[in-house]
Specification:
It is a single chain. The chain contains 17 helices and 23 strands. It is of the alpha/beta class. The strands form 6 sheets. Strands 12, 15, 16, 17, 18, 19, 20 and 21 form an 8-stranded mixed sheet that branches. The protein has a 7-stranded mixed sheet with strand order 1-11-10-5-9-6-4, with helices on both faces. The protein has a two-stranded antiparallel ribbon with strand order 2-3.
Length: 512
């Protein structure tokens, strides 16, 4: 099948790569760059709707592939989130015998690259899952033991000399780019880079270049020039055209659903009785003590000191109830008197490792003290999810998950307490749940812990879509009211949904 005639651009200009006015490091690769946050990549039902947009950039060694990738990021300006992933991380692991001949190894051959692992990592990232990318040391000529965790990008830029060579990779790209550069300039850049960054001498670099790099470029790299060819790294016309195309594709994939969640009918039964519970919703029994705590927390005249004290006390009660949803097994122990007593223990191989918590920042942090009182050594991660100022839609700004969740081979056995102060529209809750599912946490291993829930709206949608997820609420309120925030100058701001009677802005009352 004949290749489509490539598009070639031939104008030049000089610019410096920045992201939000911060210079991008020219030497750093396999990096997640975040601008104003990652918008929802899933629909109202929580199912992923779109893959990440993937750009493949190939070219000769030291042709400027990384620079072109950074220029694309800079030109995108207010991009949601971008991953720049380098082929250099996927060179194969060497045996001790191969390490002796390290400088004689042919790194410019497709066989030197672990293409199946390269394609699998890219496939995972494209499908909005996490990937643990290898780290290769050109100084030690060996793949390192630890890996680089990557997750959460709308755009993935893959760069490497063989980035367009393998069919497994090409089928994952939305755009293919080839960076052209004169051979003498590439050699000069390679000598400068390898001496400074990889500890090599000039003679060894020249021998490797003439023996391996130049023949490999002619045989494997140059024939992959297709679709879009960028002559030179300072080609503003090419970069502008590429970024315009990317923005168009991203805009086609955008969608909003917070209002739909807020207005959703009760798709499943949610108890409004203060003592009622169902299979996947547990509401604390409304004892006089508990109702007294909620009365203090709802009172607008309650001092900040009292609000913090009773919030921490309530968090302990709710987290103790949530612990009951973990799997337990029967055991026997010997008491100090020598007698045998029947008891219970968590039914897990390594509960300290498997049980963890993820806080939806900021209000979810109010439950951490209570969880620590129940499980002192529990690992706690966080998700920073904020509303977009213009649309009100949730935006994922930062994720710092426990290591057991980050590792695909362990995440299926993890039990996660997901913490947030309240669930109204459920937009932030749905995003946090989607992040955990993307990492391989099973649905029935997620326990959502919260002070307040609403018997309609987002919780109804989440419980119907993910019936395996269980919610532990201190209480349920029956109102979700549409309101408008005002700007500092008194003009109408964005629309919000408030729980009524509710507890007000819980985060502000606790932290400010």
């Amino acid at each position: 099948m004949a290749l489509r005639r490539p598009t070639i651009f031939r104008t030049h200009t000089s610019q410096t790569p920045f992201l939000n006015n911060v210079p991008l490091s020219t030497g750093e690769k396999n990096k997640l760059l975040v601008s104003h946050g990652r918008p929802p990549w899933y629909g109202q039902d929580g199912k992923p709707l779109t893959d990440a947009f993937v750009i493949g950039i190939a070219g000769g060694s030291a042709s400027g592939k990384t620079h072109v990738a950074q220029e694309i990021v800079r030109s995108l300006d207010s991009i949601p989130s971008v991953i720049i992933m380098s082929q250099d991380s996927f060179y194969k692991e060497h045996t001790p015998e191969e390490l002796v001949l390290a400088f004689a190894n042919n790194y410019a051959n497709p066989d030197a690259i672990d293409m199946p692992l390269f394609a699998q990592c890219l496939r995972d990232l494209k499908s909005c899952k996490q990937a643990n990318v290898p780290i290769y040391s050109f100084t030690a000529h060996q793949r390192m033991k630890h890996r680089k965790y990557l997750y959460g990008a709308n755009i993935i830029i893959v760069e490497g000399i063989m980035a367009l060579q393998d069919p497994q990779l090409r089928e994952l790209y939305d755009v293919n780019i080839f960076v052209q550069c004169d051979s003498d300039l590439m050699l000069a850049r390679r000598i400068k880079r390898d001496v400074a960054e990889r500890g090599r001498d000039v003679e060894g670099i020249l021998q490797q270049y003439l023996r391996f790099v130049k023949p490999a470029y002619d045989n494997f790299v140059a024939p992959t020039a297709r679709q879009v060819i960028v002559p030179g790294v300072k080609n503003s016309v090419a970069i502008d055209l590429i970024t315009t195309h990317v923005r168009k594709k991203l805009s086609e994939r955008s969608f909003q659903f917070r209002d739909k969640l807020a207005r959703a009918d009760s798709l499943v039964h949610i108890p409004t009785s203060p003592t009622a519970s169902t299979d996947n919703l547990v509401v604390l029994r409304q004892t006089p003590q508990l109702r007294g705590i909620y009365t203090i927390l709802r009172d607008r005249e309650t001092s900040r000191e009292d609000f913090i004290f009773y919030s921490d006390r309530l968090a302990t009660l709710i987290c103790e109830k949530a612990m009951e949803l973990l799997p337990f097994k029967n055991i026997t122990v010997r008491t100090p008197t020598g007698a045998i007593a029947d008891g219970k223990d968590v039914k897990m191989d390594n509960p300290i490792r498997q049980i963890c918590s993820v806080t939806i920042v900021r209000a979810g942090g109010m439950l951490e003290m209570g969880l620590r009182r129940v499980m002192r050594d529990v690992a706690i991660g966080s998700l920073l999810i904020q509303s977009d100022p213009s649309s009100g839609e949730p935006m994922l700004l930062h994720s710092m998950l426990p290591s057991v969740v980050q590792r695909r081979e362990e995440s299926g056995d993890a039990w996660v307490f997901l913490l947030d102060a309240q669930i109204g529209t459920g937009a932030a809750a749905l995003m946090a749940i989607r992040v955990l599912l993307d990492h391989g946490v099973t649905e029935d291993h997620i326990i959502f812990v919260t002070f307040l829930g609403v018997p309609r709206g987002g919780m109804a949608v989440i419980r119907k879509t993910f019936p395996g997820i269980r919610f532990v609420c201190g209480a349920v309120d029956d109102g979700l009211e549409e309101r408008w925030l005002h700007n500092e100058d008194g003009t109408p701001g964005r629309r919000v949904w408030s729980i009524t009677p509710g507890m007000g802005n819980i985060g502000d009352r606790y932290y400010m």
